[in-house]
Amino acid sequence: MGFFKKDPTPLEPSWDTTSKYDNFWKTTGEFLLEIVKVVVISLAIIIPIRSFLIQPFYVKGASMEPTFEDHQYLIINEISYRFNEPARGDVIVFRYPKDPKQYFIKRIVGLPGERVVVRDGKVKIFNEDFKNGVEINESMYLDTTVTMGTKDMTLGEDEYFVLGDNRDASLDSRSFGVLPKRLIVGKVWIRGFPFSTFKIFTTPQYQL
Known about the structure:
Helix content is 18%, strand content 30%. The protein is an alpha+beta fold.
């Protein structure tokens, strides 16, 4: 007669509440929380920079050739004019006086209080230092110094006279008149793309 070994006492079921699914959701929750933290911190840094310090812009059109060409990307310094006044030669982005929804890019030629005269293909300014007027030498950024049109304008307080570098294809102060300072967004700082055209811009030094 054979003998049968008695089965051992069955194991008690486990009631451990920390299952592999709980660990999964805990790990996932911690990961998502870290992502939220990174996003919040990034926004806290990027939004003030984007709103008050620098801003990207896209060149559209040929009015600033050869300095800036169509489809180039620029970084605009928006904080500089909070501490310094716009200077002659600065390339700026501003809201078009006749339609503030549009953004233009031009170069400052005339400063507040000056008289600017465009005649015979030349640009002359009259101010305290040059009461009889002086022709502006723009050869450092223009292929040609010929500026078509006729304009004689005296600028008031916080008013600027702006021109495109491509004088034959630019809608500027010769057409729409003075540019109020309040419409200036900022000064062109960097030409960033295409990378082959990368350049950091500074204010040119004129020999008047």
